[in-house]
Amino acid sequence: MATPKKRPNPPSGGGGGGSKPNPSGGGGGSKPNPPSGGGGGSKPNPAKPPSGGKPMPGLPSLPTGPGRPKPLPGKPGGGGTPKPPGGGKPKPPTGGGGKPKPPKWPEFENDPNAPPGPTPEGPPDIPGADDQPAAPPPRDETPVAPPTDETGDEKDPYEEYFKQQEAQRQRNAIAAVRAMLDQYGLSSLYNVIVGYVQEGYDAETVMMLIRTTPEYKQRFPAMEALAKKGRAISEAVYIDYERGAASLEQRYGLPKGMLMGNVTKLLEGEVSTSELNDRVALASSASLQAPQDLRDTLSNYYGIGQGGLTAYFLDPGVAMPLLEKQYATAQIGTEALRQDVGIDVGVASQLQELGVTQEQAQAGFGEVSRQREFMSGRGETATQRTLIMGNVAGEQAARQQIERIGASRVGRFQGGGGFIGGQQGGRSGLQESST
User: Fold this and answer.
1) How far apart are the C-alpha atoms of 304 and 306, rounded to whole Å?
2) 237-201-217 Cα angle (round to 5)
3) Which among 195, 177, 194 has a CA at the least distance from the CA of 186?
4) Does residue 176 lie in a domain region?
5) Fewest CB atoms within 10 Å of the CB: 106, 223, 226, 364?
6) Spatial CA neighbour of 312 closest among 334, 336, 285
7) Cα(25)–Cα(425) distance, rounded to whole angstroms?
8) What are the angstrom distances between the C-alpha of 364 and each of 31, 208, 299?
9) Residue 259 near residue 280, CB atoms below 8 Å
10) How many Å apart are CA 412 and CA 252, to the nearest integer?
């Protein structure tokens, strides 16, 4: 069998020496370097260090020519480990040119709760296998679209804030005013309230505007007159006055509406609650509880008909002291009539001014009725006026005259017609009554 001939190295175009030709074109007796263009059957020589010394053992030979990698930056002489082409981490060996086969984990093959199988990047994520904590989930950096209005325009946050504040102010003002108007019986003005509040008025200003409406003036008719007098009252006081009037009607058995129908006149006449109570008590006594003869006397003295007696006592145009005086005068005149003693309003009024009460009048006119005979006969006599002033009013001169007349009448009867104390007493000087 013929021995194959060795393939000679191709010439590089340079001169030779006595040894193997150097492809680089230089002479000498050293071994030729591999050609820069690749190819050839001989093994490459180990790379020489940049200093030109001996090659370091264990290092592969570096290619020459344009394909030689550039030295790492920052290290002189091109030292360091060269980066793989294309950058990034080196790929694991494929073992034949295909995709890397994942290793088998037989202990998890039949376990339904086993972690997911291995991936090309490595074994499954088993808890506790990796000491490093798991990376947090990535944040959602998607920008949130700002709120928009009905037209699609972006809303101004400050404008939205002020809108919310204004809406809250309107709700509070409407609620406050509405609560007051519900108490006043003016719920029908709700839409008016809403309109004023939407115009920007606060609750206090809205109430001032409400007081100018016709509905308010109809509900509180006395308010305007009291304000002009400088005696303005609040709505709460007005309502309390109405409630007090209704309570007096029920307490004294007055016809319903008799007081409520006069509240405006009473308030405009500045009749207080206590005075109204006194008037009602007096009116009830005069018109409802008083006997008929007292009603007749009131009618005769003051021309008050029985139908208008209560209204007369409730009339704020008639002062309460005058009503009390007239009622007491009528009581005195009534007691005189019950004793069959007729007196006019002047005498009755004079007795009332002297402080004569109804009980004193009852007792005094009883004596006047028994001494009626002193007004006639022989000897000294007395007028009815004298008898009234002496027995009812307790006037001293009148009482002395009555005592003399009484003594003379008794002595005359005892002496068989003789005259005792034959001096006739003078008159008292008080105005005599024609009756």
Assistant:
1) 6
2) 40
3) 177
4) yes
5) 106
6) 285
7) 191
8) 175, 63, 24
9) yes
10) 57
Q: Give how far Cα 375 sits from Cα of 328, 372, 404, 417, 427, Å.
A: 28, 6, 13, 19, 13
Give the relative orientation of helices 396-414 and 384-391 as an angle to the nearest 10 degrees: 110
User: What is the DSSP-derived secondary structure letter of residue 376?
Assistant: S
User: Is residue 172 one of the residues assigned to a domain?
Assistant: yes
Rounded CA gap, 265 and 258, in Å?
A: 12
Residue with tokens 């679209």: 145
The two three-digit tokens of residue 5, written as one number: 């001939």
State residue 319's pLDDT score. Answer: 84
Chain length of the chain:
435
- Cα(95)–Cα(277) distance, integer angstroms: 119
pLDDT tens string 263-285 = 999 999 899 999 999 988 888 87
Using CA atoms, how far apart are residues 98 and 106, in angstroms rounded to an integer? 23
Cβ atoms 78, 62 nearer than 8 A: no
- DSSP H or E segment with residue 402: helix 396-414
Measured between alpha carbons, how far is 427 from 381 in angstroms, rounded to an integer?
Answer: 10
Q: What are phi and psi of 421, to 5 degrees?
A: 60, 45
Asked if residue 361 lies in contact with residue 332, where contact means CB atoms within 8 angstroms, the answer is yes
26 CB contacts (<8 Å, ≥6 apart)? 14
DSSP letters for 199-229: TT--HHHHHHHHTTSHHHHHHSTHHHHHHHT
Residue 337 has pLDDT above 50, yes or no: yes
Residue 1 CB neighbours (<10 A): 3
Domain count within the chain: 1
Are 345 and 329 in contact by the 8 Å Cβ rule? The answer is yes
- pTM: predicted TM-score of the whole model, two decimal places: 0.49
Q: Say if 161 falls within a structural domain.
A: yes
State the average pLDDT over residues 326-344: 94
Read out DSSP for 130-184? Answer: --SPPPPPPP--PPPPPPB-TTSPBPPHHHHHHHHHHHHHHHHHHHHHHHHHHHH
Tell me which residue range forms the domain holding 174. Answer: 157-219
Residue 298, classed as helix, strand or coil, is: helix
pLDDT tens, 180-234? 999 999 999 999 999 999 999 999 999 999 999 999 999 999 999 999 999 999 9
Q: How far apart are CA 323 and CA 281, in angstroms?
A: 12
Do residues 313 and 258 touch, judged by C-beta distance below 8 A?
Answer: no
What secondary structure letter does DSSP report for 284? I
* In-domain check, residue 188: yes
In angstroms, what CA-CA distances link 34 with 5, 312, 351?
20, 146, 163
